[in-house]
Amino acid sequence: MSENNPYIPMPVEISKIIDEVDTHDIKTFRFTFVNKDDEQKFVYLPGQFAELSIYGKGESPIGIASAPTDAGYVEFTVQRAGAILPGLVTSALHDMDEGGRIGLRGPLGHSWPIEFLEKKNIVVVGGGFAFTTLRSLVKYMLHKDNRSRFGDITVIYGARTPGLLCYKDELAAWEKRSDIKTIITVDKGNETWTGREGFVPAVCKDVAPSPENAVAVICGPPVMIKFTLPVFFELGFSKENILTSLEMRMKCGIGKCGRCNVGYKYVCSDGPVFSLAELEDLPRDF
Amino acid sequence: MLVLKKTTIDKLPELAACLMEKGTLVAPVKEAGGFNFRAITDAAQVDLIFHNTILSPKTVFFPQTEDFVRYSVYQPILEAKPVEPEIRPTFLFGVRPCDVKSFEIMDIHFTRTGVPDPYWRKRRDATIIFGFAFDTSEEADPAEFYHTLGIGAADPDGSDVFMLRRDDVLFLKAVSPRGENLLGGLAGLTDAAPDERKYFDDYIAQGHDYKTRYTCVDAEAIAKEFEAIFHNTDFWTKVSNACLSCGICTFVCPTCYCFDICDETQFGQGVRRRVWDACMFTDFTLEASGHNPRTQVYQRLRQKICHKYSFHIRKYGPISCVGCGRCTRYCPVNIDIFSIVEQAVQAKWYKRM
Amino acid sequence: MAISFEQIEQHLKTEALKLLESGKVILVLAYGRGYDANHPMPYVAKHPSDVDNIVFNEYCTANLARYLTRYPRRTKIAIAVKAADSRAVVQLIQEDKVCREDLVVLGIPVYGMKNFKTGEVIDSKTTGGLYNPVLYDILLGEEVHGQPVSSPYDVLAAYEAMDKEERWAFWQRELGRCIRCYACRKACPMCYCDPCFIDQNKPKWGEKSPESPGNLMYHLTRFHHLAGRCIDCGECSRACPVDIPLYLFHKKVAKDCEEMFGQAAGMSIGDKPVLVNFRVDDSDKILE
Fold it and tell me: Which domain holds residue B14?
């Protein structure tokens, strides 16, 4: 019953743990596949997610943070969830060490529409910890085999404080490159911060990326999205050219258990990537 | 030409025993509160004297619990064993036409869209369905409304064998090649006479006209009506004032499919299984952050009804309802989905806006 | 004198109309017509024009007190209550979930209520056996007198004759049928906890599937959470789609509680909830 059974996870092993933020509750876990066939079958594109499974605790849907161009491993950036209801899986994962093994089901969902993005200028906007699948997208696009397929790439990424920025090393590397415009901001700096200060929506307005042949890919906490979208409408981006990724409580991740719908679409199997035009077709409320 | 066979009601236990030898026989059994489909252990239990069951026969393909993996929290993950469901050839005996139709609708969701669900598929493939016509000489049960969904009281579509009772005679007609194969191999059945064949065919035909509660519903139109009403909070509050937000309507419904995946552990040994869930439950959409998009009863009832009469249509085509009436019959406060649909069709509330 | 359900319905409509028109309440919890006359539904009247839809007949068994905790405090509500329902209102007032001043209690003295699923008459076997509301602002009929009075605990005779092993086997069998639909919890006016213990994850008190010991955990715990609070309306048992006789356990606990502490649930708004209230002369039997 384990052949082609979408409910049975495959075993993966933690090969590296990176502490991303100064509050130590967001870590990037790098996994290698225990079975080589699983690794070969795990073909994904940026934007997809997977269910991280720990028997006895449950499963948690997490966006894939590595890019398909990263060979031999897959990465997930996981926050120890839950202020009111402690997350069982994420807490257990955070307590694990390198060498620990968990289960993985995936890749799930639709990716960022790579074909749609080709030959266009891409504006990537992210806030806080929601940057993971955007990071996957940027890494993918920047790879030498892919860079020429895309136009200008602009990244606007903000966090509440400098310590809460994820992927700090990569951001620094991007800032040095000439084939990508990287704008990092924080809501509030500290003594050592020399970069920008400002909320992401305000920074977007300031940077004012051109809507000419451009697609905006926006991911972040609801409050950031709420104030960033009007900026892009004003700049002239049409609804088909603004993409985002939704999150709802999920269980099966394959569109069977009925939990994660917004209107007639299941966020797991019809999304999680949606254009704003598609979202207009769905109820504003759930 | 698929032949019509017959037997007598008092010889049903023999038929049942014959089927029990070939596999698992599942038929309606009288229990506290009503009837339910159960695996038969005593052939004498099978008498087909029932109107309809409490839980729908979806339990055969989509049981309330389905085990996925057995694990131990003290053992490494590689020791965890996927559970192989034990599925014998199964005979689902005495399924009303509305419930047979529900299987078709659920097939679209479970196996014909996206990743096929291996558990539904295996159980479905292993089962032969004996449909059973409603008694059209009786008045319709007030909760039912399958006529509205275009289902006849004696529709054989979807069954492998279709049965019809006339006094103490039970007619059985093969509808599918599997059904024909099976009937050919069953001892104790005799061929029906030509006038009996005519009775059977006439009965099926007039079953289409059998009047349950009826309102004219077109899938496309009703999907749009509910889309238009979605944000009308007054309508949904009014409709859900009595609703307890329990889970009975979901659990008895033949076309509801929501489930949860749970790791149930006791003293370190556990099983990951899927378990029925209901969008009517308060914590169905509760997120780890503590945020819940559907805290109010009206939001959950709206989700349920809009799923069945709008979202399912947009996503899969058919209305996700067969008018069996169970939700209404077993609702502790008598909420009536038919009248809610009627109100939307007549767009009373929408027009009031 | 036989109960005239039509008269009660008339009085209910009259009072509801007066209360809504005067603005004394913003909603009336009453009953309305369901898909046929024998299946009425709980109904909320908010406008004077809604009053026409109010009905009252022998099938109006729903305990409307369960809806009180849905509305924010200070909401002015009129509620139609029969005897047991009025006890629920009293208990909710004792537990400070609802304010006496926010309610206009329309008491319905009645006997001869019937279970709309089975048609059988509802008596002290499955409810508290009272006919007259214990609390009301307006009585919608004449008090019932002369009906045979039986103890709500008479039905426990067979149950109490069972020894420990038999009772354990009995409940394992009965609760094994449970499909965890939670209708019992939702039908109960006293089950207002958010979140309910069984829905919690840390700690997980019971598993979700009916195949697990979760059924026993859920029901046995719930029976005890209702000790001294259950007002014996029987709604849980009527709501159950698989006919589990929940009322037996509830009545047994209520009987023990009344014997030990001399107080029944929901009888007077001056009482304190029995298991919350400490009195020096409280029975020590529970420690034996």
Answer: 4-62+84-207
3-state SS assignment for residue C97: coil
B184 and B292, same domain (yes or no): no
CB atoms within 10 A of CB A236: 11
Q: What is the pLDDT of residue B47?
A: 87
Q: Is the pLDDT of residue B1 over 60?
A: no
- Ordered by where they begin, the domains of chain A are 10-107 (2.40.30.10), 114-245 (3.40.50.80)
Q: Using a CB–CB cutoff of 8 Å, tell me whether A257 touches chain C.
A: no
A interface mutation test: which of B122, B289, B301, B313 has the most A CBs within 10 A? B289
- Say whether C183 and B248 touch across the interface (CB within 8 A): yes
Report the chain C residue with the minimal C-alpha distance to residue B337.
Answer: C35
The three-state secondary structure class of A213 is coil
Tell whether B236 and B203 lie within a shared domain.
Answer: no
- What residues in B contact C186, CB-CB < 8 Å? 244-246, 332
Q: Do C42 and B65 touch (CB under 8 A)?
A: no
Cβ neighbours of A102 (radius 10 Å): 23
Tell me the pLDDT band of A237, cut-offs 50, 70 and 90.
very high
Picking from A144, A60, A68, A137, the residue whose alpha carbon sits closest to that of residue A105 is A60
Q: Which residues of A touch B289 (CB under 8 A)?
A: 81-84
- Measure the CA angle with vertex B124, ends B121 and B130; round to 5°: 170
Chain A residues with beta carbon closer than 8 angstroms to that of B315: 264-265
Same domain, B172 and B32: yes
Which letter, b or e, does each residue of A50-67 get, where b requires 16 or more Cβ atoms within 10 Å of its Cβ? bbbbbbbbbbbbbbbbbb
Do C70 and B297 lie within an 8 Å CB cutoff? yes
Q: Is C239 within 8 Å of B245 when comparing Cβ atoms?
A: no
Cβ contact (<8 Å) for C42 and B333?
yes
Is the predicted pLDDT of residue B218 greater than 70, yes or no? yes
Query: What are the helix (H) ranges across chain C?
Result: 5-22, 83-94, 157-161, 164-175, 183-187, 214-225, 235-239, 246-261
Q: Is the ipTM reported for this complex over the cut 0.90?
A: yes
Residues in B 62-81 with any Cβ partner in A closer than 8 A = 68-69, 71, 73, 76-78, 80
B108 and B58 co-located in one domain: yes
One-letter amino acid at B36 equals N
pLDDT band at C286 (very low <50, low <70, confident <90, very high): low
- Checking if the pLDDT of B291 tops 90, the result is no
Residue extents of the structural domains in chain C: 5-139, 154-287
- Residue C96 above 70 pLDDT? yes
Specify the number of domains making up chain B: 2
Residue B270 is assigned to a structural domain of this protein: no
pTM recorded for the entire structure: 0.94
pLDDT band at C150 (very low <50, low <70, confident <90, very high): confident
Residues B242, B151 share a domain: no
Determine whether A7 is exposed, middle or buried from the number of CB atoms within 10 Å of its CB (0-12, 13-18, 19+): buried
Domain assignment of residue B28, yes or no: yes
Chain C interface, best mutation among B30, B329, B333, by max C CB count within 10 A: B333
Determine the residue of chain A that is closest to C195 in CA distance. Answer: A85
**In this predicted model, what pLDDT tens digit does every residue of A27-69 receive, in sequence order?**
999 999 999 999 999 999 999 999 999 999 999 999 999 999 9
